[in-house]
Design goal:
Blueprint: E1 2-6, H1 14-26, E2 31-34, H2 39-42, H3 52-63, E3 67-71, H4 79-84, H5 111-128, E4 134-138, H6 151-165, H7 168-174, H8 201-229, E5 234-236, E6 238-239, H9 248-253, E7 259-262, H10 273-286, E8 290-296, H11 313-324, E9 326-332, H12 357-376, E10 385-388, H13 391-399, H14 408-422, E11 427-429, E12 440-443, H15 451-462, E13 466-470, H16 492-495, E14 497-504, E15 510-515, E16 521-534, E17 538-543, E18 552-559, E19 562-567, E20 569-571, H17 574-587, E21 601-608, E22 611-618, E23 624-627, E24 633-634, E25 639-640, E26 644-647, E27 652-656
Parallel strand pairs: 1-2, 1-9, 2-3, 3-4, 4-5, 6-7, 7-8, 8-9, 10-11, 10-12, 12-13, 13-19
Antiparallel strand pairs: 14-16, 15-16, 15-17, 16-20, 17-18, 18-19, 21-22, 22-27, 23-26, 24-25, 24-27
Helix pairs in contact: 1-3, 5-8, 8-13, 11-12, 14-17
The structure holds alpha-D-galactopyranose and zinc ion (ZN).
Alpha-D-galactopyranose is lined by residues 141-142, 238, 261, 294, 300, 332, 342, 345.
């Protein structure tokens, strides 16, 4: 198992390298990520390569049993690149190029930048192909910035549209350019849409798709070269969880596995259900285990810094990801830098380079991971429930949320958290996934609903699947035009409802909802309400004292041999979602958690190879006692587990069935 740190030997005198490598070895750290910002150190002037320093650093690390992941260094262009090829700098919406001196500032269509990127990638791959301790590659760093509005990008966008739509008639139709008299008569007339309140939403959606594709293409050019020299070495990239400017399914396609950067420690300690969800999404991008390429190691911040992870928290943050499928973990960063913008983004070591508390905690965690490795081999999270996670809906909602508070991730998290509290693992899947392998599909805010997807969801329910979806689902087609149908469109029969009207609920106004069994109780509807007419569905919760007395807010409907749930509003109380998910779980025959969980304690299970490993994670600052079934082994003590276990604050238990 690989556990390590992001390391920048180029920031420290050579005399220190041996100390660093020794301290890593003593802590059980066996891998580093190197060189993602070191382009100019490897190519100080165009075409002259200087890899000797990195050879030496690799050798020092190798002697201490530390392996390396090398990066293509294209996230920061050398100053000479900006000077010689000013067109490589991205153009902003005001028509001015970004001033060189930060990072992620290149245009992705610039021919010069693409050639220079391919050249340094090939030079590195060729030079390091026989280095004994290179075990993997990372492409670039955190793809997603910047968007460029230069003429080359505009021409490529027009070409991309021509390939997608074929004729101008089709483009004019797909974008609805009859509106405001926006018909275009030549491809050259198509502008680059700038995201603002008056831009055409269909144009914006294609622009986002195009921008995503540009990044994927840029990465693919590098991957192709790396594979020539490193056919058996993994290639990954550091994704950013719920960052959603790119279609991450596409970006993951050319990679062997996904990695991501996890920084959940900010304000007061809290239950990190969002980090759990992001881990699940990262696993879902390729349907396999992933790595953490940057894991919280200390207080972070570029100007002012946030909270220091409290004792036990560095370990808890790491274990949570292990529990969700992270098979390799790397802390960002090894030693806190004394120079530049990230002087306050703290590593395991402080500025002083001493192996203190944070280092000790990482060392303890690494030691435990190595002992756990054989038990985890061949295991992953195997869920019976999947969330559809759809980038195109996220984008469309970003341009037009419909109701002001509509936020895709907030919607998703309302349902996700109910599963999380119930101790039930879930997967994330793209809208193209095979739904039939899941007992239930949760599709919050599935705003863009092409007919083919609606038909597949319908068939899924008809043949016994359980579908839950909610407000603003199915409003748009794939070109971001509103469907000319009564909502919920092609899902009307599945859900047994018609939504002829709807409304935003302003500000902090709330309306009372009365739930009936299984949702018995009183709740508060906020932000938005569908005006639902049941067409066969049964009402689980209804509005009272409202302009439409007894109007349904949540429904359940048997269709074929399956069931469709619908929630037509946003409910303030988490208890509403807990009750709803509890009912859905029974309807879908999803197995309940094997352990009853106190508030703030998370359960995640990895299975495979005939093994079952249960992780208990205490996100609270109090001790928590959890009752356990018989027959478990506590893998951290090596002893049979008792029928109850007490987790210290931020404590973790790993139990094998
Ligand atoms: C990102 C980057 C790192 C570093 C950290 C902390 O995750 O990938 O290079 O900048 O943030 O700021
Ligand atoms: Zn450009």
């Amino acid at each position: 198992m690989y556990v390590g740190v992001d390391y920048y030997p180029e920031h420290w005198p050579r005399e220190r390298w041996e100390t660093d490598a020794r301290l890593m070895q003593e802590a059980g750290l066996n891998v580093v990520r190197l060189a993602e910002f070191a382009w100019v150190m490897m190519e100080p002037e165009e075409g002259r390569f200087t890899f000797d320093w990195l050879d030496d650093a690799l050798a020092v690390l190798h002697a201490r049993g530390v392996s390396a992941i090398l990066c293509t260094p294209t996230a920061v262009m050398p100053a000479w690149c900006a000077r010689k090829y000013p067109e490589t700098l991205a153009m902003q919406t005001n028509g001015q190029r970004i001033v060189w001196g930060v990072r992620k500032n290149n245009c992705f269509t610039s021919g010069a930048y693409r050639l220079l990127s391919e050249r340094i990638t090939r030079a590195m791959a060729e030079h390091f192909q026989h280095a004994p301790n290179v075990i993997g590659w990372q492409t670039d760093n955190e793809f997603g910035h910047p968007v460029c509005y230069c003429d080359t990008c505009r021409a490529e966008f027009q070409d991309w549209l021509r390939a997608r739509y074929g004729t101008l008639e089709e483009l004019n139709r797909a974008w609805g350019l009859h509106f405001w008299g926006h018909y275009v008569g030549t491809w050259g007339e198509i502008p680059l849409p700038v995201a603002n309140e008056s831009a055409n939403p269909s144009a914006l959606l294609d622009w986002q798709r195009f921008y995503s594709w540009l990044n994927v293409r840029f990465q693919r050019d590098q991957v192709r070269i790396l594979r020539e020299y490193f056919p058996d070495t993994f290639i990954t990239h550091n994704f950013m969880g719920f960052f959603s400017d790119l279609n991450y399914y596409d970006l993951a396609e050319d990679l062997d596995h996904v990695s991501w950067d996890n920084y959940p420690v900010w304000g007061a300690p809290r239950v990190m259900s969002d980090a759990a969800a992001m881990g699940d999404l990262m696993r879902g991008l390729k349907g396999k285990n992933y790595w953490i390429m940057e894991e919280t190691a200390g207080p972070g911040g570029w100007g002012s810094f946030g909270r220091n992870p409290w004792p036990g928290e560095i370990r808890l943050v790491a274990y949570q990801q292990l529990a969700h499928g992270a098979d390799g973990q790397i802390w960002f960063r090894w030693r806190t830098c004394t120079a530049g913008r990230e002087q306050y983004w703290h590593g395991l070591l402080g500025h002083d380079g001493k192996p203190l508390r944070r280092y000790q905690e990482a060392a303890r965690t690494a030691g435990e991971y190595h002992a756990l490795a054989p038990h985890l081999e061949g295991t992953t999270v195997r869920a019976e429930v999947a969330f559809i996670y759809d980038y195109e809906s996220i984008w469309a909602l970003r341009f037009q949320p419909g109701f002001a508070e509509n936020n895709y991730h907030a919607a998703l998290q309302r349902y996700y958290d109910a599963f999380f509290r119930a101790g039930i693992n879930v997967d994330f899947v793209p809208p193209t996934a095979d739904f039939s392998t899941y007992k239930a599909i949760i599709a919050p805010d599935l705003h863009i609903l092409p007919d083919a997807l609606a038909e597949r969801l319908r068939a899924y329910v008809e043949h016994g699947g359980v579908l839950l979806t909610d407000c603003r689902t199915g409003v748009k087609d794939e070109t971001n035009l509103c469907h000319a149908r009564t909502l919920p469109g092609l899902l009307a029969e599945v859900l047994g409802i018609a939504i002829e009207e709807y409304e935003s609920i302003a500000g902090d106004v709330g309306f009372t909802l009365h739930g009936r069994a299984p949702l018995a109780g009183q709740f508060t509807a906020v932000h938005y309400a569908d005006w639902i007419t049941p067409r066969g569905a049964e009402t689980l919760a209804a509005f009272k004292e409202w302009h439409l007395p007894d109007a349904p807010a949540a429904t359940r409907h048997h269709f074929g041999t399956g069931v469709g749930y619908y929630v037509g509003t946003v409910v303030k109380e988490p208890a509403f979602y807990d009750a709803l998910i509890a009912d859905l779980r029974i309807t879908a025959r999803v197995a309940p958690a094997e352990i009853a969980l106190p508030d703030g304690v998370e359960l995640s299970v990895r299975k495979g190879d005939g093994k079952e490993i249960l992780f208990l994670l205490n996100h609270t600052q109090q001790e928590q006692t959890v009752s356990l079934p018989a027959g478990l082994t506590n893998l951290l003590t090596g002893q049979p587990a008792n029928r109850s276990i007490t987790l210290e604050r931020f404590g973790v238990a790993v139990l094998r069935k």
